[in-house]
Amino acid sequence: MNEKYRSHYLGSLNSKQIDQTVTVSGWIKKKRNLGELIFVDLRDAKGYAQIIFTKDNLENYELINSLQTESVITVVGQVNARKEINSKIPSGEIEILATNLTLINMSKTSPMIIDDQTDALEDTRLKYRYLDLRRNPVIDKLRMRHKISLKIRTYLDSQDFIEIETPMLTKATPEGARDFLVPSRLNNKKFYALPQSPQIYKNLLMVGGVEKYYQIVKCFRDEDLRADRQPEFTQLDLEASFFEEKDVQILMEQLFIEMMSEIKGIDIPSDFASLTYNQAMNNYGLDKPDIRFDLQLNDLTNLFSNSDFKVFTESKTIKAIVLKDLADSYSRKTILELEEVVKKHNAKGLAWFKYTDNQLSGGISKFILEDEITKLETTLKLENNDLVLIIADEWDITCNALGNLRNYLGKKHQMYNQDEFKFVWINDWPLFEYDEEFKRYIAMHHPFTMPQNNKFEDDYLQTKARAYDLVLNGYEIGGGSVRINDRAIQQKMFELLGMDQAEIDSKFSFYLDAYEYGAPVHAGIAFGLDRIAMILSGGESIRDVIAFPKNASAKEVMMDSPTEVSSSQLKELGIKLD
Fold first, then answer.
1. Pairing of strands 162-163, 212-220
2. Residues 406 and 438 in one domain
3. How many degrees, rounded to 5, is the angle at CA 133 between CA 49 and CA 258?
4. Residue 54, SS3?
5. b or e along 113-130 (b: 16 or more beta carbons within 10 Å of the residue's beta carbon)?
């Protein structure tokens, strides 16, 4: 600590320092001018304390009188007991009577309120991010992120993992999103790609005999943004040889048990919940279910197999959720608001009815047959004042729309404790999904995931993957798999994803060759560090836990990037803009 500027942090001062002379430095948070007496709340990285400036005790009194808030100063003074204790802050028992003042840097008027609560719009906060960082809610989230990263490193070090950096300038390979491309001046008309993940490199580290690798690494994906996405993001990436699914899951469960205990002070159960992909979709509607509340989907497809209601007879899947004892809270107008929620997720509409006085009313009740009513009462365990909400469509649309409605209702009706944390593993994923637009298979996770039983089913869409995701409170925080370690299986995987031999050779010949020199069984996982920090710090967006994030349009408004570049730079790179 440089005694010229600081003998104590402001937030650490208390009654133990009374009668001591201290040196403190920081930013003027608040100033109250009472004529010959000026009160200043001075802030540093640890908190703030009250400083008193008087004409009798300070030669350059006029200097403090002229300073704007957010100016940076150094103060020498005596610590005194406060007459009126401020119990809201650690330094609330004391105040400092200033005897010397040094101006370090004068501030002009701030464009935003710098306090725990601010009315500044997000773009203003991002444009002046260096000011926003002075606010406790922002810096506290970055401190939380630091603690998470520190815990990850100490834990994995104790498990004999070694941190290894992999290249940032690499090769464009298909991993599920668009690549960010970087032109090479030295290799004209050729491009690097920024890594979507270090997947290929970490697989090759296993071939290289490293056995236990990890890194906290930047990754890049050129995709549409949402609250928990950024074009550049940070993940915990790890891989281990001679590991299978359960080995990875046990390793990660212990990490999160220790992390939640040390960072959040919360003891979580050692046996994490587990669902198959089909269970998650059928019961919760989403492959990242929030299991803090028990509003589950009910399948009514067979119940309505002989229905007279055309919407049901023309639909492959019919599912419902039941809002218990809430029917009287919903009018036709408020149910229409729920319909708008499901339409955002491609559902054509929302069917409904109420159950009151042992009978159905409203909505589609007039289309439901007597024998169907009896079956509904039993299947849905209907009770007085229940509201039943139904979607009928293709299986994936029905599940997804009703699952998102479930999340909406869970939040609206406060069906869970905001301070509760529930983890669940999602296993037995499909290896492929079919892309109707491009008429080909695409990998549900990535092209390096081993199929179950190390073989492909005759119906490729029925092939299960040796893959697993970890979900926390409705967010997928990590995904991993046992990797393909056999050249023939990897070759077949590439072919099923629509690559011809020329493309395979061009993009992956080095990779396939490596697998002919002794590749161990290996498995791994990658966690979104931004997302974990967001959840544990109570943020609404991963932008909250990134020091200098992009906005919803992928722009960095503080530096005004991306920007145009000069014609000379483009010429040097051999690029001509259309």
1. parallel
2. no
3. 90
4. strand
5. ebeeebebeeebbbbbbe
Residue 425: in which H helix or E strand, if any?
Answer: strand 423-427
Tell me, yes or no, whether 405 and 424 share the same domain: no
Cα 527 to chain centroid, rounded: 10
Number of domains observed in the structure of the chain? 3
pLDDT band at 438 (very low <50, low <70, confident <90, very high): confident
Domain with 66, as residue range(s), is 10-105
Which of these three, 536, 553, 573, is where a domain ends? 536
Kindly give the interhelix angle for 245-259 and 136-158, rounded to the nearest 10 degrees.
130
Query: Cis omega before residue 562 (within 30°)?
Result: yes
Which pLDDT tens digit goes with each residue over 496-546? 999 999 999 999 999 999 999 999 999 999 999 999 999 999 998 999 999
Q: Which of 107, 98, 106, 66 is nearest to 79 (CA)?
A: 98
Nearest to 422 by CA among 476, 474, 477, 479: 474
Report which of 555, 567, 452 is spatially closest to residue 122, judged by C-alpha positions: 555
Task: Judge whether residue 559 has pLDDT over 70.
Answer: yes
Residues 247-274: tens digit of each pLDDT: 999 999 999 999 999 999 999 999 899 9
Domain check: are 430 and 339 in the same one?
A: no
CA distance 80 to 19: 6
CA distance 278 to 291: 15
List 191's β-bridge partners, or say none.
183
Q: Strand, coil or helix: what is 338?
A: helix
Q: Quote the CA–CA distance of 378 and 388 in Å, as a whole number.
A: 13
Residue 251 resides in a domain: yes
The answer to whether residue 480 is domain-embedded is yes
The residue type found at 367 is: F
CATH number of 360's domain:
3.30.1360.30
Could you tell me the pTM of the whole model? 0.92
Same domain, 300 and 401: yes
Residue 112's CB is within 10 A of a number of other CB atoms, namely 16
Strand partners of residue 475: 472
Q: Is residue 327 assigned to a domain?
A: yes
Residue 39 falls within a domain, yes or no?
Answer: yes
| 85/41 same-domain check | yes
Domain identity same for 312 and 403:
yes
Q: Please check whether residue 387 is in contact with residue 361, taking contact to mean a CB–CB distance below 8 angstroms.
A: no
**Domain closes at, from 412, 438, 459:** 412
